[in-house]
Structures are given as structure tokens and as C-alpha cells.
From TrEMBL, chain A:
InterPro entries: FAD-bd_oxidored_4_C, FAD-bd_PCMH, FAD-bd_PCMH-like_sf, FAD-bd_PCMH_sub1, FAD-bd_PCMH_sub2, FAD-linked_Oxase-like_C, FAD-linked_OxidoTrans_Type4, Oxid_FAD_bind_N
Keyword Protein transport: no
Domain FAD-binding PCMH-type: 48-226
Protein name as it appears in the record: FAD-binding protein
Cofactor names: FAD
GO MF term set: FAD binding; oxidoreductase activity
Coiled-coil stretches: none
Gene3D superfamilies: 3.30.465.10, 3.30.70.2740, Uridine Diphospho-n-acetylenolpyruvylglucosamine Reductase, domain 2, Vanillyl-alcohol Oxidase, Chain A, domain 4
Automatic annotation (TrEMBL), chain B:
InterPro entries, alphabetized: FAD-bd_PCMH, FAD-bd_PCMH-like_sf, FAD-bd_PCMH_sub2, FAD-linked_Oxase-like_C, Oxid_FAD_bind_N
Keyword Flavoprotein: yes
A GO molecular function held by the record: catalytic activity
Taxon lineage: Bacteria, Pseudomonadati, Pseudomonadota, Alphaproteobacteria, Rhodobacterales
Domain FAD-binding PCMH-type positions: 1-172
Taxonomic source organism: Limimaricola litoreus
Name assigned to this protein: FAD-binding protein
Pfam short name (any one): FAD_binding_4
Keyword tags: FAD, Flavoprotein
Coiled coil: none
Amino acid sequence: MQMPSPDARIMAKKAQVVARLAQVLGDRGVIHDPAETRAYECDALTAYRCPPLCVVLPATTEEVAAALKVCHEENVPVVPRGSGTSLAGGALPTADSVILGVSRMNRVLETDTADRIIRVQTGRTNLSVTGAVEELGFFYAPDPSSQLACAIAGNIAMNSGGAHCLKYGVTTNNLLGVTMVQMDGTVVEIGGAHMDAGGLDLLGVICGSEGQLGVVTEATLRILPKPEGALPVMLGYDSAEAAGACVADIIEAGVLPVAIEYMDRPCIRACEAFAKAGYPDCEALLIVEVEGSADEINYQLETILKIARDHDPVEIRAAQDADEAARIWLGRKSAFGAMGQINDYMCLDGTIPVSALPEVLKRIGELSDDYGLGVANVFHAGDGNMHPLILFDANKEGDLEKCEAMGADVLRLCVEVGGCLTGEHGVGVEKRDLMSVQFDPVDLEAQMKVKDVFDPKWLLNPAKVFPLDVSEGRRA
Amino acid sequence: MIRPGSEAELAEAIRDADAPLSLRGGGTRGPLPEGTAITTSGLTGIVLHDPAALTLVVRAGTPVDEIDAALAGANQCLAFEPMDHRALLGSTGTPTIGGVVAANVSGPRRVLVGAARDHLLGLRFVDGEGSVIKNGGRVMKNVTGYDLARLLAGSRGALGAITEVALKVLPGTETCANLVAHGLDDAAAVRAMSAALGTPYEVTGAAHDPHAAEGPRTVLRIEGFAPSVAYRSRALVEALRPHGTWQIEDDREAVRAEWRGIRDVAPFHGTTGNVWRVSVRPSEAADLAARAGADQVFYDWGGGLVWLRLPEGCDLRARLGRYDGHATLVRAAPETHAALHRLQPEPPALQALSRGLREKFDPRGILAA
């Protein structure tokens, strides 16, 4: 993976840039000592690291605007950062860039259960948004696995999803308004506590633009009343085909579970060893969760279990209470941690049409044999968002490169069967150079035109999303 | 009228155009821009319906009726319930799915399941230079590149002509019931609707008609499997005790007919004057309606959508002043449309962004939306 070489002119004027930023933010708001900027050298894609020129941590929208204005005048690239949990390198700096972190801006500005909204500063973590409304009987629906740590700013930048999207949608479906600062320091208010755009849906294109169009400092989010209850059922199958057919039949029957999670044998074994959730040793495990009152849950589970039995399950276990439910989820929720204990791994994020599932799993198995790298599959089966974990040894010469090559092949496969490169993690630098697999030049050109409008100098997170050769003429 | 039979023909027509085009699907949704008429209604057909993946890929000119029928065959539906504008506007023609997406048209269920734009998985469109562009895809979760699909949804053809859309579809509902209260004033009705939407009972519609024949009528819809509908209806009646007396009406066909009427703003059918559609923060809705001094008011989306009928030429936006939302002029004489504009004017910074996007996607100003 390549990053543009740092601009010597910017490197040479570091002291001047730092001084100007300190002037508008105070000394406390600017970090420039290399010992301290090192903490910002990467996000959760730790394979790539580069300390930034400096880091700014503004405390208000006005400070964000002032800092961006300075960088705009100095022609210094800015990399916005939420909590730095991106798995795609979305917050990876270059040596000539300023990291703009929103972590100091984490207040709840307004909560209104009658209008079912919460307005927060975007440095606030995803889970703490739900935390702020939980006692009122509400929750914020998008629930990425990193929700304890990840910031709403990053969720908006990446249009984050989670396990419950089948019913509740992803970030863009739960975002009503933003306060955003453009690269030149202009502050814009888009949307609000009302529904839908009056003109062009700018909010729609800002969400998921990976911090390339502006820095979102405040967000109005939809909150939903908590369901009366939810229970999962665990279904074990001896083949991917049977599990896939079961998922298809459940959805076609008109039941809409809030989550359908899938794990394959390597993943089941790792999770079981790690979490002792009582998973059966089988080829494919489904966790299907439904919501409602006790009677409604039972009614839906009856329908699901009837379908499940038609596909010769090796195990069926319906949770009877919250403890059993937690145990069923425990294994799944610790999947990444469990795999991390036994191996280095790379987590992919492609999405496929649900119907292509058995074929894709088969071909991932073939790729695994070809490359000689193990794969564990865990994914959101209801929406086709796959997370194959490719296992490699970081200490072994050439293994990371081999793993990346195999990852690219898996993502090409996702596109080939009608899916996409990334379902919820974002493109960042990780999938940047694969964009031409999914998009024709004219498609990428149309996307880059949007950036031309919002950030004509291409200073915001410029080396992400678009292949470097494709964006070359536009970047400074 | 230019009526291309394929995406390539449409692209060619746009490339070759040397004067503004007046783009439309079925042309049923209100005033059409000046220019040479061109329609996407010749691009028809369902490309793919994958019921197990809850996915429909369809060409833009396909009639909405045809899609509804095809989906019903698999017990599925467009959950966002797109409104049919014909009775309100007195327009004729056949509503197309491309028009629905281009105008982001949603009905009562929007309040729970989201708008047309929320069900859009991807699309293909021709920009103002005649380039064919694809964005998104046909899968439920997709964050690959910028979300131009949502930018195009609701753009009313200003950035391009949509030729194909991929939509998320949802299971149809087995049955439904209404909870009805009579005699609530507007503010009380909005409070009751907010309370209902704040329960876990999944209210899929919340509307209030202050001018109903038998007096103000507030109606809440519950949908789903029969036992679940029965349970939630009873639970909701209990939960809403502080907000008056609620009766359950469970004649399925009558309930469905009433919500079709709400979707299409039936109380305004056969009236005269301007029709405005205001998206507003629900708790501001009743005050806003009072400020409007309208001849007739109708609330949907739990108060988040206020329909107002005013005398011809009345500048509603001037009357309303500042509020959290926006007002669209839906029905008016051509001179009123010319004077007041269909869409709410944006603040300067947003206007600059919108104008910039239009200039990028349609540098020649061919797409006169």
C-alpha cells in the first residue's frame, strides 16, 4: 500500500503551522512533540503507521473552523479522526498532515423523546449515545462491534452498520442532521430534527464520505423506543448450503429478525474455546434474534424453528431467558477477540447477495487452499455482509503480503457475484486500490466531482477512498 | 416528447441536447420544468427480484402498480408506501418508480421504516453530459465510495436522469388495525402521536385530521402478524390512557383504505387553493399550523409532516418564519410556482454547495429541474 510522499514545503514550515494552530486553539489544543504525535500514527488498521505533522484537538465547532481555516490557508492536508477505531485506515495520517481529533467534543446537547432525537457532539462514543437515553426507554440503533470505543464522527464518516441493520438500517438511516465545518472553515447546518431534505440530500452524501467532505462536529440522531424484549435462537447445520437455505426461507416467510449471524466451523471452534458458549461443533451456526413481547417472540420463534427443522439441523437451541440469550451471543460477540488469541488475522468486510452465500463460501475455501492461509467466516447473514478473517503470521516474512493478496481476491469475488468491497468498514486506504474493480472510471469521476465541490483543494483526507493514480491530478 | 427505449438512447438524447430538457417519469407529481419533454417511461421492466435477499432491481420507467403487483406475489412490498399524487394534483399518467426515487416520495410508514431514499440500495443514472454512472449496488450494506444514490434520490432530476434503481423490499403485512381518538385539538393530537411512537409497539402510521366529518380524528396504525397486532393494539390503548379514549378498529380492508387515503392526502382531494407540504420537528407542528392560518390542515408522520391548504399565491414561508424544517409548494398555479418556488430556499452556504453540484453534474444546464 502506497501513500503519497510528504510535501517537503509543508514539512519545512511545521513550526509556523504549529504556531498558527496554537494561536487559535491554545497550547493545550495542539500536540506536536514527536513522542506524543506517535499515539496518532495509526488507527485499528495497525499494519500501516505514520506519525502526523501535528495533532489538533479542538473543543468547539468554532475551534474546528479556526483550525481548518489555518490549514486551508497553509495548504496543509487534514485527516479527521474520531476514536481511531477504523479497520480501513480511514484515520491514517501522512507525515505532512494535521490530525484533527474530535475526542474532546463529547457532550450531549439535547435529548427529546417526544421528537425521538438526540443531538450530540460527534466525539461522543456510539454506546454512550444509547447510554444517554437508555433510562428513558430508548436506544440508538446502529451498533458496530467497536461501539464501546468508536465515535459518532467516525460512524458518520464511514456510514457504520452493525448486527441489527436488517431491521434498523445503518447510520445514514438514523442520521437527521449535522453541523459540519468545511475545509475553508465555513460552518454549515444540514437537516435538523425534521425528516428528509428540502433540496438536494447533502446529508446523504456526507454520510459515508470518509471525512473527505467536511468535519462533522454535531449530529442529530434518531433514537428508537427499546423493544419489550429480544431472544436469540441458535441453529447448527452440517453444511453452508443448508444454513443458507434456512436463512432464505426465514426471510421469504415474512419474518424479519433483527439479526441473523453466521459462523463457520473454524470460527465456532475458536469462539467455543474462548467463550465456552456451548456451541456445537458443526459446519455452520446461525444465531437468529427476534424482538417483541414474550408472546410475539414465541410466535416468531415458532415460525423460525419450523423452517429450521426442515433443513435438518444438528442443533437447535432457543434461549429461554436473558442468561441463555447472553450466552448464545457471548461466543459471537467475542469472535474477533477469540480469533486474535490464536492468530494474527485480517478482517474483510465485503457484502454479497444472500443467495450467493454457499458459492462464495466454497470459493473462499478454495482460495484458502491456494494461498495456504486459514480462514474463519463470521458475518451478518441477513444482509449479506461477510467478515472472513484471513489468518496469517505477522512474524513470518511475506505472510502479510500473501494475506493482503488473498483478501483482494476475496473482495474481487464479492464484486463478481453482485456485491461490494465494503459493507460497513469503509474504503480508507485498505480497499482504496481495489475501487476500480467495482467502479468504472466514470463512476469514480462522478464521486470525485462531489469532493471537488466540498473541498476544491483536496486537503481533507486526500489519500483515501480513490486510487492514488485516479485522484492524482486533483490532489495538491 | 422524447421517449428513449434504452439507457443508451437516453444518454445519447441528453448528450445531443442543446437546450434545456424537461425530464419526467410519468409526469404525475406536479409542475414540470420548461424545456423539451423527455421521459424515462420507456425504460421498463423488473431486472431482478430476489425475495430471499429482500431485493428488487427495476428500470426507472416501470409503473409503481406493476411493481406493487409483482412484489405482492411474493408477499413483499415497498415498505415506504409511496404516495400517488394524481388525485391531489388532478394529474394524469402513470407513476413510475424512477419518479418515486427522484422525488423521494414516501407515505405514512416513513415515520417507522424510513423514506424512499432509505430503501434505495443503488442506482444507475445519466448525468447532464450524457455519461452513464452507477452507484451503490444491490446489497443491503454497502459503504464502497460516496453515496451518490442518496444524493440523486430527491434531486428531482437536477443531477441526472435515473435509469435503474435497486431497492430494499420488505415482507408484506398480514393484517392491521387502527386506534382512533376523536376530538383532540392539534397540539394534544401531536402529543398523543409522539407518545404512541415512543412506545415499543411499532406504530406504522400516525395521522391527525382536524377537519374530519365527525370532528377531529387521530388515527394510529398497527401492522403485523394477527396475534401481534391484537396484543399491541390492546397494549397501546392502555399506554395512551393519559391521551384520551382510543377505540380499536380492526376491519382490515377499511383500515387499508383509510391509510391509502392518508397516503394520498385524501382530505384535500377536490379542493381548491395551494397545497403546501411542511416537514417539521413534530413538537413544533401544531404551533406552525396555527401560524400558517391555513384553510385546512392535515398531519401525518406523527406531526412530522404537515399538509396545509392556503389561498392561491399566499407566501406560507413568510408567515412561518424560522423553524426546524422546510416547506414545499406542491399544488399551485404556474404563476404562483414561478413567484414562490417549489422548494424551500436554502441558506447561502448550502445553496453554494447545491449549485456547485449541479454545475459539476450538469455543466451545460441541460437538466432544468
